[in-house]
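Problem 12. The chain below contains 134 residues. Write out its predicted structure in C-alpha cell notation.
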Amino acid sequence: MAIHLRKQSGKTINLSTRHWTVMLTLAETFGWSPAGTIAPVGWNGPGEWGGAYDTNDGQLVSDDDAKSLARHLHGAAVSDQLPIALTDVINYIENAAEARGTAIIDAMRMKPDEFSDIFSPLLMFLYEGSFYID
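Solution.
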C-alpha cells in the first residue's frame, strides 16, 4: 500500500506505507508531538475522526503540524544518532507487525540505508506546510 502526500497546489510525494510509518515514528523519537490530522471532506465514518496519519483517507495535516514534522525529521537527519535511531525504529515497527501475526521475510525487511533518498524531498515537501494524505 502507498501513501500519497498532496499539496493544495497539486504537488505530490509518494511513500510506501512502511516508509511513512518509519518517518512518523522517527519524528516522534526526535520530539515531534503530532497534532492530529483534520478529517477528510465528507468523512462520515463511525464516531469522531481520530486524527490518524497512517491511513490514506484524504485527511489534512495542518500547516503548523507539517512544519513541526519537518523540523523534527530535519533534526533526525542531521543527528549523528540517525543510523541507530532508524535501526531502532525499524525494529520496533517490524516487531510490532510480527506480534500482530504478520510474517516478514528477510528480503522484505527494511534497512536504514533505504531512507537516504527519502529525507531531502520529504523535508522540502513538509517545510512547505499543510498537505493531504491520500
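Discussion. Residues 2-133 form one domain. Students who got a different answer should revisit the alignment rule from Section 12.3.
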